[in-house]
Glycosyltransferase (Christiangramia fulva), 353 residues
Amino acid sequence: MKILVIQLKMIGDVLTSSILFKALREKYPNARLDYLIYEHTKPVIENNPNIDRLILFKPSEHKSLAGLQKLAKEVKKEKYDAVIDVYSKINSAFITLQSSAKIRSSYRKWYTRNAYTHTFPYKKDTETIAGLAIENRLQLLTPMGDDFPKEIKPRIFLRDEEKIWAKDLLKNAEIDRSKRLFMISILGSGPEKTYPGKYMAYLLDYIVEEAEPTLLLNYIPSQKKEVDEILELCKTATRKDIRADIVGKNLREFIAICSQCDALLGNEGGAVNMAKALDIPTFSIFAPQTPRKEWGLYEKSEKNSSVHLEDYFKEILEDKDKKALRKESKNLYLLLKPELFEDELKEFLQKFS
């Protein structure tokens, strides 16, 4: 049996959708399991023992109609028995339809439904602590059997040499390992998913005062100016405990460094999902437009905590869709003052005392 999973989205989505391979491998141990993803998201699923082959979508080659048709032909040649399209957009629907697979499963949308043999509506209520992002994905496997699990935790598989590299990096940087080491997701994936800088600086001061850790920062070189602006708002004592110089050169290096941390705190997003997949405790701040019941993966477990504007101003968010909330995110974020959730943050930090 040959099965293809398609997820042409960002890092967090690709990582979360990788749970399908664990479920499929357990049910079909001898199957050929392939994953079609964007080239730049490859690091989060490298070394995953449940994935046999990666098919990389390269925008420079496949974004045009001719390029998409070429990719679809390559997929069709593989003669897959089943294609699970988690992305569920026009381009992935085209690839799925052209595959001629006997089972073609995806989400129910009026503009792509004819491409599939089985479609499913998005669930609105959770059955487990996993979160809707996981439960919705697993239901796509229903055409292949009714005995798949209802929840599976995403995992990242680091090589031993990667862990050793990260340990050596911290040792050579003279990081005091007698202190707690926290990774800070200081910026979101975009302005509309980034907690206000003055509030983030307040939180960094609070974290350092309460737990006395060493702080590492998750950011890329192009974001250094934004990061420096936030750090300038921090107390001098806080800045002394921040090692902004320790940054991975690529995503895989960040993952390795993160694996050595005691916790990750900050903006909800891909970094939080990666930390959870490494079994690192997290404290995340959700953007107003991001539904926590969808992306709050395993939030009710002992390890993970989060805050959302809905915890304090639920009535403001009612009757507004994601698009409207995204437009208003800057002003809505300002309502989520750090003082509102100091108690929740303190309770999280006490786990490391």
Remarks:
- The longest strand covers residues 32-38.
